[in-house]
Design a protein that fits this description.
six-stranded antiparallel sheet, four-stranded antiparallel sheet
Length: 585
């Protein structure tokens, strides 16, 4: 297994992020869809202020209608078209890593789109000052494929990921064998230590050796205590070996040198020396690292930082290019117009606390005598924030009725009504209505010149990036501090991404497909920028820490941390995938 920089877009859960693309439609109904990265975050078609915490609270989501059918995509099945868009976004991400690495002359083993078994692949090799491409046949020559020089370009079976693989700077197999031998020696040395220990010391030794949780809770003191016992054991073994050797030489008679066999003293001396050798062999083995300057691990910190950042930068550039193209050669970027407040979007059911008080089409302008629920953000982002504010305020109302400042239907006059909410076991209030944005119309914005296009495209990228980062931050804070998902947020996994993309592709609306690609690209950039192990941002943290400290961080420690984090991400992905299947059926 070799080191690699991977796109983990489709294995990370995130908060709901509204995608900034809408299509102009008839009636006063906005067409929006919500997508989030590696786990697309989406929501039901309306926000239901529900009676349980498990209810999905999110922004309005509806299907997209076809406006200008794209002949090139109309013939492609919707799921396949969705997967193709995702694979293209991942291709761009990995191209960022690859181009950054090769521009510095860093060796690369493989460029892969997709994960799992290889479907097709070629190997580029330099032969007589010319590049040649050979087809890779894994079944016919697996060992030759692994050992040959050159760069492999692969398309693999599961296109919901990808990676750039770099050569290792040490023999991983040999290092594993040496560590396994040291581990066995540590277990034998520990058995010798606890032979004469009391019950408490035996329990502490076992906890220090096998329990990661106890080591964490003890803030490393338990491990430090064990290390001190190992040092004492080594000193005792060394002293015992010296004493035994000296005693053997002193007590042995002059004719003992002529003896051809071993006596009891020789056996005792050998046992002391074997114990000492055992304890010494229990130490972590020294790994010999390759000093090849063309390896990624041996490059300066700034070059490694550029390589790790390349994928994120290329994803942002892809989103910018999508918006720039729509502003210049496309129909323009849709800009939905919203009035203040949120709308009761569906007929209130008979068992709802708001039945007889609120009606479909009512606009909520304030909650609990707060005259405004306006947002500092504009457009769809501000509309989503207003809905989240209403939901949060209703949830947090502790006692008594909830007072709503509303406008009935087409009336211009405002009024205040009271609703007696229902409360769940946690005391959260619910008024049982579906909420949507107070949508007016959608205007198509075009650029008047190149400079204007650059400005507007940059603004669009900034808006969606900041909104995505804000939503994910709220999600992480809620999970870490036990607050659960924030108001208006839900999660899904890889299956949800494909399904959401299929809905867009099935519309054959090229503008919507381009906007979907831009949104997924930004989400991939934000997710991989998080300072979490196994992500680009987490690996960048290691590089920056090395630069600040002026010394290398143990590489095997980094790999262990990344492997553990990746395992957690895989479990999260499996969990969200199960949720996606349940939501479909």
């Amino acid at each position: 297994m070799k080191s690699q920089v991977a796109a983990v877009l489709l294995t990370v859960a995130s908060a709901s992020t509204t995608l900034a693309f809408q299509s102009p439609i008839n009636n006063n109904h906005v067409k929006t869809s919500i997508y989030s990265p590696a786990s697309v975050a989406h929501a039901p078609k309306q926000h239901h202020v529900s009676q349980t915490r498990k209810s999905k609270l999110s922004t309005t989501t509806t299907e997209l209608h076809s406006i200008a059918p794209a002949a090139a995509l109309s013939a492609v099945g919707s799921p396949l078209g969705s997967i193709a868009v995702l694979a293209f976004v991942i291709l761009v991400h990995e191209a960022g890593h690859f181009i950054a690495a090769r521009s510095f002359g860093i060796e690369v083993d493989e460029f892969s789109v997709g994960v799992g078994p290889r479907i097709v692949g070629v190997r580029r090799k330099l032969v007589d000052s010319e590049y040649v491409f050979d087809r890779i046949d894994d079944a016919a020559e697996p060992q030759q494929n692994q050992d040959d020089d050159g760069i492999e370009f692969s398309l693999r079976a599961i296109p919901l990921g990808g990676y750039v693989r770099f050569p290792e700077n040490y023999n991983r197999t040999l290092a594993f064998e040496m560590e396994d031998a040291a581990r066995r020696a540590r277990n034998k040395a520990r058995s010798l230590r606890i032979e004469n220990s009391n019950a408490v010391e035996k329990a502490l030794e076992n906890m220090a050796a096998y329990s990661f949780i106890f080591n964490v809770f003890s803030l490393g003191l338990l491990k430090k205590w064990q290390s001190k016992r190992v040092e004492d054991q080594l000193k005792e073994a060394e002293e015992e070996a010296l004493v035994t050797k000296a005693t053997t030489v002193t007590k042995k008679p002059w004719w003992g040198a002529l003896s051809l066999g071993k006596g009891d003293d020789d056996t005792t001396s050998d046992e002391s020396l074997s114990t000492l050798e055992l304890i010494k062999s229990a130490k972590a083995p020294d790994v010999e690292y390759d000093a090849n300057p063309d390896l990624l691990q041996n490059r300066p910190a700034y070059q490694r930082a550029v390589v790790l950042s390349g994928g994120v930068v290329f994803n942002i550039l892809l989103a910018f290019a999508c918006y720039f193209g729509e502003l210049t050669v496309g129909r323009g970027l849709p800009e939905p117009i919203f009035n203040p407040g949120v709308v009761v979007s569906q007929t209130v059911s008979n068992d709802s606390p708001a039945f007889g008080v609120l009606k479909k089409g009512d606009v909520i302008l304030g909650v609990n005598e707060v005259s405004s629920i306006s947002s500092s953000k504009r457009g769809i982002w501000g509309s989503q924030e207003q809905i989240s504010n209403v939901i949060s305020t209703i949830r947090e109302t502790q006692n008594g009725d909830i007072k709503l400042t509303i406008v009935h239907g087409m009336d211009s006059a405002t009024g205040v009504v009271s609703v007696s909410p229902k409360r769940n076991l946690d005391g959260q209030a619910s008024i049982g209505v579906m909420l949507g944005p107070n949508y007016v119309k959608t205007e198509m914005v075009r650029a008047s010149n190149v400079v204007d296009a650059v400005t507007k495209a940059g603004s669009a990228v900034y808006d969606i990036t900041s909104a995505t980062a804000g939503s994910i931050t709220k999600l992480l804070v809620g999970v870490l501090f036990g607050k659960g998902l924030p108001a208006g947020a839900s999660m899904s996994g890889p299956i949800g991404v494909v399904k959401a993309g299929a809905d867009v592709v099935s519309s054959s609306d090229l503008a919507a497909i381009v906007a979907f690609a831009a949104s997924i690209s930004v989400n991939l950039a934000v997710i991989n920028s998080l300072p979490l192990p196994a992500l680009d941002g987490g690996q960048l943290v290691f590089v920056l820490a090395e630069a600040a400290a002026g010394r290398k961080i143990d590489q095997q420690l980094q790999e262990s941390i990344n492997a553990g984090a990746l395992t957690i991400l895989l479990f999260v992905s499996i969990g969200t995938a199960i949720g996606d299947v349940r939501s479909i059926f």
